[in-house]
Design a protein that fits this description.
This protein is mostly helical. It has 2 domains: 1-38; 87-257 and 270-295, MetI-like fold (Orthogonal Bundle). It is built from 13 helices and no strands. α1 (2-37) runs antiparallel to α13, α3 (87-118) crosses α7 (170-180) and α10 (211-226) runs antiparallel to α13. The radius of gyration is 24 Å and the shape is globular. The two termini are 37 Å apart. The relative contact order is 0.12.
Length: 297
């Protein structure tokens, strides 16, 4: 008995050590990014590198001296003078596109999931399997057909070109349907007997009950669209319509790395903040939604 308890304790400590190691692997790059955003250019180029900030500065965001090599360069808020709003225009583009896709895709997926979970009609399972089968098609295969359709019917270099093709989310439909299957049909029948229409039942009853699942899936969709690089690269032409991932690729200049790496770190830091804030605000609902679907699915 004592040996079993000792073995359990050892396994627990090994598990904790593994978790701490994985956390460090994730946090150390983020810590290095934060350091780089607030270091001076000479400190960034120091060999060996420093792991604490000796002279904190905001020059990577805005440098009053401007382009004055080798120790000064234009900050993040100064390097896009030709774009109205500068860097914040790209922040707005990413937030608007990601937010619109998340809200609209969740609404469409929830509607479809409600129909497939709580309405009985011929071919219901066939349509569900058809949606699931679409997940097996690599997204790279759809780039050219989507590009041709967007250029013909929507127009390139528009918000619609970024938002509309991203609205169908088969995995969101599957995720929400599995959550709705656990809801008792008697509750919906009672609402129908009281005279509530289907759309009213969906808005007033179903959506509030699937809140945790909506939050969980919403965070997944937001993160995917916030980091999306390929589709904006294909469809956006003007600099004003670029999103943050596109802008960050322009900062990878090997010929100016000695002076521009602080600006790149500042951009990466600001780009990561909205996602971190969203997860902190909704982490309880996120964990609850994942746990419920994993058990009931």
């Amino acid at each position: 008995m004592e040996q079993t308890a000792r073995s359990t304790t050892v396994l627990r400590w090994m598990g904790m050590a593994l978790i701490v190691l994985m956390a460090l692997i994730i946090l150390i790059p983020y810590y290095w990014m934060v350091l780089g955003a607030f270091k001076t250019v000479p400190e960034l180029n120091r060999i060996p590198p420093t792991f604490i900030i000796e002279a904190p500065t905001l020059n990577s965001f805005y440098d009053p001296l401007g382009e004055l090599p080798p120790d000064h360069t234009r900050g993040l808020f100064q390097i896009y003078p030709g774009t109205e709003g500068g860097f914040f225009r790209y922040v707005f583009n990413s937030m608007f596109v990601s937010g619109a896709i998340t809200v609209c895709a969740l609404f469409i997926a929830a509607l479809a999931a409600y129909v497939l979970a709580k309405h009985h009609f011929p071919g219901r399972n066939f349509f569900f399997l058809l949606f699931i089968a679409s997940m097996m098609i690599p997204w790279q295969v759809t780039i050219i057909p989507n590009f041709l359709n967007v250029s013909r019917y929507i127009g390139l270099d528009t918000y619609g070109a970024l938002i509309i093709p991203a609205l169908p989310k088969a995995f969101a439909l599957f995720f929400l349907r599995q959550y709705m299957l656990s809801m008792p049909d008697e509750m919906i029948e009672a609402a129908r007997l009281d005279g509530a229409g289907e759309f009213r039942i969906f808005l007033r009853m179903i959506l509030p009950l699937v809140g945790p699942a909506l939050v969980s899936m919403g965070l997944f969709i937001w993160l995917n669209e916030w980091n999306n690089l390929v589709w904006p690269l294909v469809t956006m032409r003007s600099e004003e319509m670029r999103t943050l991932p596109l802008i960050m690729t322009t900062m990878n200049d090997p010929f100016a790395a000695a002076t521009k790496q602080g600006v790149a770190m500042a951009s990466a830091l600001l780009t990561s903040i909205p996602t971190v804030i969203l997860f902190i605000l909704f982490q309880k609902q996120f964990v609850q939604g994942i746990a419920v679907v994993s058990v009931k699915g």
